[in-house]
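Weekly puzzle thread! Below is a chain. First person to post its structure in C-alpha cell form gets bragging rights.
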Amino acid sequence: MAEEKPNAPARAQYAIRRSPSPHPSGVHQVTEFQEPGYTIVGNHLTQHRSLSGLAIGLAAYIQSLPEGAPVDIRTLARRFPEGRGRIASALRELEAHGYLERVRRRTDDGRMVTLTLSYNNPAATRARRARESAEETKRRAAVAPAPSPATPAPVTRAHASRTPTPAPASAPAPAPAPAPAPEPSHAQADPPHARPEPPPPPPEPRTHTHHTPAAALLANLRHEDPRLLLPVRDIHRLTPAVAAWLERGASPEAVRNALTAGLPAPLRHPAALLTHRLTELLPPPLPATSSAATATATARARPAPLQTCDGCERAFRAPTPGRCRDCRHPAAAECLPTGPG
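Winning reply:
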C-alpha cells in the first residue's frame, strides 16, 4: 500500500452556495431600482397558459411603446428577427385573448387607418365596462318610472276634454291659407311670386342620356394621368356627378381639364379628390331662355335659300318656293308670261 503523506495538499472542495430560499433550484429574482422608463406587466400576461412566448413578448413590447407608435406587421418584422407569418399569428393570439383590438377608421381627409388598442388587463377592462353599463341601466331605470305615476287615466281624460277648446284658437291659423285661392282674379300678379320657387330644384340630372359619355370620360382619365385609374365601383359612383356637368352645358374637355389640372404630387385617393372637385367646381345651370335665344339668333343669321320665281323665272331669297315680290305686286301683271295666242 502507498504510504500516507500527511504533507500532501487537501483535495479541492466545490463551493456550494446555500440559498436562504427553501427551493435551492429554479429562478431567483434579483430586483434593482429602475429609473423612469419601465413598464408594468401583469402576471396574467407573462404567465398566460394559452399564449405563445412570441405573443407574450409582443404584448409586453407593445405596452412599452408610446402613444401613436406604429405596431403593424411590417414594422414589427423589422424590429424582431421573426418573420411576418409568425408575428401575424402572435397578433391574432393576442386579439383572441383580448389583449389587442384593431379597428379600421376613416380620417378627416378620407384615408383609412388602423387603430390598435392595447389592453394591459382585458379582464379588468371587461369588468369595468360591465359595471358601468349596469350602473347606466340602473340610472335609466330609476329615471324612467318617475313620470309614469304622474299620468293617471282621469287626468289624461280631463286634459283630453280641455284640448279641444284651444283647438279652435289654432283653427284661425289656416284662415289666411284661403288667401291664395283668389288666384284666378289675380292671375297676373301672383305668378311672378310663384315662379321663382321652381328654378332651384332642377339642378340634379333626371335623365340618363349623359351617363354613358360620363362613364367613358371617367374611364379614360387614366390616359391623362396613370394615377387616375379608377375601379368600376368608383366610376359608377361618380358617373351621375359628371353627367350633371354635361347637362349644364360643360364640354367633355372642360370636365377633363377640371378633373386633371393641378393634381397633387402624392395622390393617394384619386376618387376622393375627383368627388371633391365635381362637387365644389360644379358650374351653374344655363338659363332656360338661352337655348331658345341661341336658336333664334342662329335662324336670323342664316339667310333664306334661293328660289326661282314661277312668274319671271328670276332668282330671289325666300323660305319657300313661289313668286318674287315684283310678280306678287298687282302693278306687275305684265311681268307674267303670256301664251302664244
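Puzzle host: Confirmed. Bonus trivia for everyone else. Confidence is low (pLDDT under 50) at residues 153-173, 181-196, 200-207.
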